[in-house]
Write a structure and sequence with these properties.
Strand content: under 5%
Number of strands: 0
Order of helices and strands: HHHHH
Oligomer: single chain
Helix content: over 70%
Radius of gyration: 21 Å
Structural class: mainly alpha
Largest sheet: none
Shape: elongated
Number of domains: 1
Length: 174
């Protein structure tokens, strides 16, 4: 009986971990979807207004910020679905043990990379906040975009940890 308790606790831990990470991934995906929708709506409004010889101020700023949000916020979803481009020709030539080793090493390297990127983006956001940098026309603060990118990179780290302990399994089915 004692031997089955850790397995149950471990299973409960990974189940809760996966639920929380999935929720965060879906929240980021919603941000990315909203950003795309915002870019489309703003661009359409601007095109219609320009046909009538009018223009909106700050369209460039809004589209630039929404594009950055979309790219940053969609990264965790793509990672969770294992939707990145992969070249598997050489990978498939390896033995099962070789594939596990190469896969684990690449996940550890990516985990280290995204942890580094998260930290650097956070520090960059702090420097933008301290300097008071804003967008050119609407004067919107730029620091929050670096914070969103830091959060996205941190979430990718959590996904990579899940993938390390669950090889071959997506966190989210596409």
């Amino acid at each position: 009986m004692t031997g089955s308790t850790p397995i149950t606790q471990e299973g409960a831990f990974w189940s809760a971990y996966a639920r929380i990470v999935r929720l965060l991934v879906y929240m980021m995906a919603a941000v990315a979807g909203f950003a795309i929708l915002l870019m489309v709506v703003i661009t359409c409004i601007e095109v219609i207004l320009r046909m009538g010889k009018f223009s909106m101020t700050g369209v460039y700023d809004i589209v630039k910020i929404a594009g950055g949000l979309c790219m940053a916020a969609s990264l965790p979803y793509t990672t969770a679905c294992k939707g990145h481009v992969a070249i598997e020709y050489f990978f498939q030539k390896l033995s099962r043990r070789g594939r596990i080793l190469v896969d684990s090493l690449s996940r550890l390297c990516l985990l280290a990379l995204f942890a580094f990127l998260a930290e650097r983006c956070w520090l960059y956001g702090n420097s933008l906040k301290q300097s008071g940098q804003v967008s050119p026309t609407l004067q919107l603060p730029d620091f929050y975009l670096a914070y969103v990118l830091a959060a996205a990179c941190g979430l990718v780290c959590l996904i990579k940890i899940y993938h390390l302990f669950h090889p071959g399994k997506e966190l989210i089915k596409p």
